């Protein structure tokens, strides 16, 4: 792991009163237990301070978030793995079901868990370039849980979601725009944040209680589904980790990453 | 209120045997209890006479329907408010779940409840011009109930519905066409009705029992959901009316309408 | 019935290890009990041999499958009709819920049950020409059961599905492409099979367990719904067959087919 420079998450309130939540776990914002805990705390803080809106982004110049930290899944301590998973569930429930306005300034690659976090926001602006976004879990031999799928089906048509999920499809910015996986593209991070703010300003004259309840109502299906099946969902994840085939897939993937890094 | 000229609803059968249901509560077909009751009775009549099809339109030159009459919600008599709401539920169940063919000739603005009525039909033709359509409840501080949302999600993708519902988006005719909120545009009311008839004629050779059951089956989800939650839905509406914040939003909205009218 | 040349189904494994399941009941692959039983057995064989993938196609030069054999429904032996229907349910559950990769090379017309079989696959390539595809049950006075509708809504937007189902819409190849009912068009059968193989090759590097579970998870809703309501679904079908109006519709349809054939 790279040495950690500063806190794992930076939460600031900008001049417009908008909370900017910047993930900061170099090099690629891999979502390990500690980063997820810090994201969760920041979401609590935004909610507690009744900040009207939040933009989620990354401190990395090229990666929004690489997704779940594979080291939390490879040869895991099952006790920690369970806390890891329930923390991820918590973060999603807080973010997908938040009462405040949420937007993602996707300033780099957003595979798997990175894609999930951005899809859990209400609006997505992605920086142009070679970056890609998608739920590519199957490429690693992992099955995206039901609530990952539900979140994707809340964003793009189910036919597109099935194709993307099974083929581990990573969308280019243009492809993501076309299918509706993102809402806008931007020239750079500053432009992405500006466009997120423009989205947030659409709500200036909308009474915030009605807006929040409306959002939570239309998102109720996936939220209630996870809340009802939380224990089973956790059990499935842990069962998956115990599967030798899965561990083998993860090992092969880690080897391929090491070979890439060595080049 | 403007003086009422003639009955609140005109129901006629045209030469093709198609029922034309014209809302006629000047100036803007605000849906108050009495108008909803008359619409409900007309829908019953169409069903009873086994008329094959119905076109819903407005006698106003510029408004299809302005939606629920805000005066039914502002400082309400709760007894009347309850009847108002259950009557609205009845109208929707009759229209959305009707066995006969339904089309809306949207000859003017169709915000909120006006949009709901048109979306509950099977086909929508809207007259070109400055008219707009959408579920803009949040702008008034109101939350569209689940069955309004379900009706919209039956018409346009859920991602588009969430964006539209939270931002109180009013679609222009072109925007509505593009997203699928309407099926066709028309040059004027006569053209809109002609296009509705063209849609209706598509069923000339389709056995009507199979057509009706097919329609009701694919609409079963939203229908059953309201039928199961009717009492709770009514309680939510009444609870909402009792909320001082909601009453304040309504008051501000009424003031803004008065100021507009005074100009 | 035309004399049967060879077995009702041809199942072969090609050089790439892909199973090719060819329906072969001349002249139009009407799905009668025997053909459905043979398809079911072939699907079992593909699953048992752990073949990675399967392409479904037809031996006819112009028809993929004409759908359910109307002679199974017209003046039926109810005992046989029940076995017919449960066999169709079985085929759908095996195909829609299969763990192996599935693609349809639609080399001709695909109305009703023919459309259902192709939609139950994960990918559809259709040969250009005058061929059409759709769930046109209502034209025959029949109601497509809920799981036919669910399968269509898994493929195209619900608004499009309602319109298509009620109007008995048959899509041209171009229309099917545009709405997403098929994924690609092809110049002929060989080209269609090539394009199916190209789709299948997308999974070469995807661990197959994760792919299979992902597919089955996103298809869980419709699968569980039929499994829960199987008996009721069968009872509905049998009740439908007993309806004199339905029998009359079927008779009229059979007459029109005879008239066409006589020209």
From TrEMBL, chains A, B, C:
Any single biological process term in GO: fatty acid beta-oxidation
Cellular localization per UniProt: Mitochondrion matrix
Primary localization class, coarse: mitochondrion
GO molecular function, one term: delta(3)-delta(2)-enoyl-CoA isomerase activity
Subunit details: Homotrimer.
Protein name: Enoyl-CoA delta isomerase 1, mitochondrial
Pfam families noted in UniProt: ECH_1
Function according to Swiss-Prot or TrEMBL: Key enzyme of fatty acid beta-oxidation. Able to isomerize both 3-cis (3Z) and 3-trans (3E) double bonds into the 2-trans (2E) form in a range of enoyl-CoA species, with a preference for (3Z)-enoyl-CoAs over (3E)-enoyl-CoAs. The catalytic efficiency of this enzyme is not affected by the fatty acyl chain length.
């Amino acid at each position: 792991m790279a040495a950690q420079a500063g806190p794992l998450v930076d939460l600031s309130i900008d001049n417009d009163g908008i909370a900017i939540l910047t993930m900061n776990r170099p090099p690629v914002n891999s979502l390990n237990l500690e980063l997820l805990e810090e994201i969760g705390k920041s979401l609590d803080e935004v909610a507690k301070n009744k900040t009207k809106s939040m933009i989620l982004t990354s401190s990395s110049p090229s990666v929004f978030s690489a997704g779940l930290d594979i080291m939390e899944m490879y040869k895991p301590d099952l006790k920690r793995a369970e806390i890891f998973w329930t923390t991820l569930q918590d973060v999603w429930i807080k973010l997908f079901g938040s009462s405040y306005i949420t937007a993602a300034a996707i300033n780099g690659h957003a595979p798997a868990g990175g894609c999930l976090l951005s899809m859990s926001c209400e609006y997505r602006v992605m920086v142009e370039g070679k970056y890609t976004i998608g739920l590519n879990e199957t490429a690693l031999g992992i099955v995206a849980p039901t609530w990952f799928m539900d979140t994707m089906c809340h964003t793009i048509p189910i036919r597109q979601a099935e194709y993307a999920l099974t083929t581990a499809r990573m969308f280019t910015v243009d492809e993501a725009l076309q299918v509706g996986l993102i809402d806008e593209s931007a020239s750079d991070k500053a432009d992405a944040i500006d466009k997120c703010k423009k989205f947030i300003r659409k709500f200036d004259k909308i009474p915030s209680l009605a807006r929040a309840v409306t959002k939570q109502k239309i998102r109720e299906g996936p939220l209630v589904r996870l809340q009802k099946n939380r224990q089973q969902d956790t059990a499935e994840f842990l069962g998956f980790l115990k599967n030798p085939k899965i561990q083998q897939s993860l090992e092969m993937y880690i080897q391929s990453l090491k070979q890439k890094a060595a080049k």
